[in-house]
């Protein structure tokens, strides 16, 4: 498939829509947690998503055979995926969507920092360092300023931070292990299959599996499986296949903006000064880090 040298109108609309979908996803998780225990919610999502991805690969006649030498990397990326969503789903059970969005979407900061040490040729430039410092300042503000009302759990904030780091670890696994030689669909299948087993095995240790679920909570699970874990991730991988990764990453600042906005608009969460200052710093950092270099 031919790649576009830059983001066109379709790409801009698609990436903006995907950022909005990711932000809305956190609202859906927050609502779903009211009826389903967060860890079993995440585990069922991974299991359902794995079945859909497997079916998609069979329909497309894509091989589901395990490539030689990829089992350790596959288990690692699946374990990181499980850690990410244990922390994210539990964070949204404890703290607000607005706070979680700001902290969780600092993932590019942690990825850039780790890549500097682990991936040859992916060093931090002065521009990226400045962006990283701005985003890190936003995290510090989010963790230290706790005003604004609503859910402001420090544990929830810290879990969102660990989730962001685990997400960065997943990206590193995809780029720097044996999995870099397999199709993105197979990478995703590893993540979903391994995490489904780990999450469902861990779920009983986090309390009752159900919290008097109603139709809206099962609808949230169906949305997570079909729209996020299957179609959403595949759409993202497709966008990465036709547009420059650096240009795609430039839209990452939109997700925390949309997350804060939807938390306020849909859930009525208060947006205090600490969240707004943190949001501005994180978004500024992401923009500086992902700004295209002029040649």
Topology:
Layout: H1 9-32, H2 38-59, H3 71-94, H4 97-104, H5 107-118, H6 126-144, H7 154-176, H8 184-202, H9 215-242, H10 245-249, H11 254-267, H12 273-290
Helix pairs in contact: 1-9, 1-11, 2-3, 2-8, 2-9, 3-7, 3-8, 4-7, 4-11, 4-12, 5-6, 5-7, 6-12, 8-9, 11-12
Describe the model:
The chain is mainly alpha-helical and 295 residues long. It has one domain. It is 73% helix and 0% strand. The protein has twelve helices and no strands. The chain has helices at residues 9-32, 38-59, 71-94, 97-104, 107-118, 126-144, 154-176, 184-202, 215-242, 245-249, 254-267, 273-290. Helix 5 packs across helix 7. It is globular, with a radius of gyration of 18 Å. The two termini are 26 Å apart. The model has no long low-confidence stretch (mean pLDDT 88).
């Amino acid at each position: 498939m031919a790649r576009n040298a830059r983001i066109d109108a379709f790409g801009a609309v698609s990436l903006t829509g995907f950022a909005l979908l990711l932000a809305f996803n956190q609202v859906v998780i927050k609502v779903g947690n009211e009826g389903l225990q967060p860890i079993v919610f995440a585990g069922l999502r991974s299991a359902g998503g794995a079945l859909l991805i497997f079916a998609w690969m069979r329909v497309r006649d894509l091989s589901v055979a395990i490539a030689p030498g990829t089992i350790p990397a596959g288990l690692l990326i699946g374990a990181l995926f499980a850690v990410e969503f244990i922390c994210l789903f539990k964070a949204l059970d404890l703290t607000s969507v607005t706070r979680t969005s700001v902290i969780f979407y600092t993932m590019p900061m942690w990825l850039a920092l780790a890549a500097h040490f682990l991936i040859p040729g992916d060093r931090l430039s002065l521009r990226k360092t400045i962006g990283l410092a701005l985003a890190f300042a936003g995290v510090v503000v989010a963790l230290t300023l706790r005003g604004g009302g609503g859910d402001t759990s420090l544990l929830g904030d810290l879990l969102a931070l660990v989730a962001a780091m685990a997400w960065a670890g997943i990206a590193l696994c995809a780029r720097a292990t044996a999995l870099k030689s397999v199709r993105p669909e197979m990478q995703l299948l590893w993540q979903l299959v391994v995490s489904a087993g780990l999450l469902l095995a861990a779920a009983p240790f986090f309390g009752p599996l159900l919290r008097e679920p109603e139709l809206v909570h099962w609808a949230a699970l169906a949305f997570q499986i079909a729209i996020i874990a299957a179609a959403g991730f595949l759409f993202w991988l497709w966008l990465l296949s036709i547009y420059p990764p650096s240009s795609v990453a430039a839209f990452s600042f939109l997700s925390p903006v949309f997350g804060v906005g939807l938390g306020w608009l849909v859930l009525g969460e208060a947006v205090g000064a600490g969240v707004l200052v943190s949001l501005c710093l994180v978004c500024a950092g992401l923009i500086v880090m992902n700004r295209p270099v002029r040649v």
